[in-house]
Amino acid sequence: MKMAAGRPKVPKATVQSSILICFSHLRWNFVYQRPQQILTLASKQQQLIYFEEPIFDDRRHPSMRVNHISSTIRIVTPLIPVGTSAARADAIQRRFVDQIIASAPHDRLTAWYYTPMALRFSDHLACDVCVYDCMDELSAFKDAPAELTQLEKALLQRADIVFTGGQSLYEAKRSLHRSIFLFPSSIDIAHFHQARAPGEDPLDQADIPHPRVGYFGVIDERLDLELIAQAAAAMPEVNFVMLGPVVKIDPASLPAAGNLHWLGGKSYADLPSYLRHWSAGWMPFALNEATRYI
Questions:
Q1: Residue 56 pairs with which residues in a beta bridge?
Q2: Computed over its alpha carbons, how large is the radius of gyration of the chain?
Q3: Dihedral of CA 93/98/102/106: which sign?
Q4: Architecture (CATH level 2) of domain 18-182
Q5: pTM (predicted TM-score)
Q6: Where are the domains of the chain?
Q7: Is residue 14 pLDDT above 80, yes or no?
Q8: pLDDT digits (tens, 9 = 90+) for 125-163
């Protein structure tokens, strides 16, 4: 071991020799948010394997789709035949996890969890570090699996360190682990600062009159649709621009009005182009179990 300034110099693990495998319920290419921001930074120091939830489709045999996003980021998506039992699906994913890790020689393995459900096929991993990044109270979401709460207890037993995505989550979980830290979600300042500069109005927004109040994010059971409809009716001179994919709710349930504009999902890169032409933003969340920890 070499000496530097009288102190032992510990060799750093190289990008090639360290692997971080992340188990996530969120698609990498769905909405760019906390997992992508944190893990893209992590990929500068180690190889990242982002293991998504499976896609069940019409196929005869299971397979594994691997997309190389960069030289250090791989997105792995299990493709499993429709009708496969839960136990069989877990066995398939366990085999895929073993295969993908074996394909990348390493001397350090970090397992990073966004969903406790992944323990069903990854609890056998002998990792050097186990991280649970609890960004949401998933058990409060619509259609949450019944066993999620028990699996989270198991993950809290297994994890070396736990992060929470907000203060209320931290207060709820702080007594459940010996090494838990508040790690609040924040803003990509450099990216969104682009909205302060002049620029063209996107085509699907250009004809919407001002003033505009906007929202961007997933459109699901957390939004207060009644409040949105009431706001549009109470302020007919204001145009409400709503950006984001519709998930877990019927698109037909979205309120309609002449000053309410549902423009669909937009790429992360394009968001500043929309925001720069808004007068204000809003977060019209409902007060329910799904939003309790936002």
A1: 80
A2: 22
A3: positive
A4: 3-Layer(aba) Sandwich (3.40)
A5: 0.83
A6: 18-182, 190-291
A7: no
A8: 999 999 999 998 888 777 778 899 999 999 999 999 999
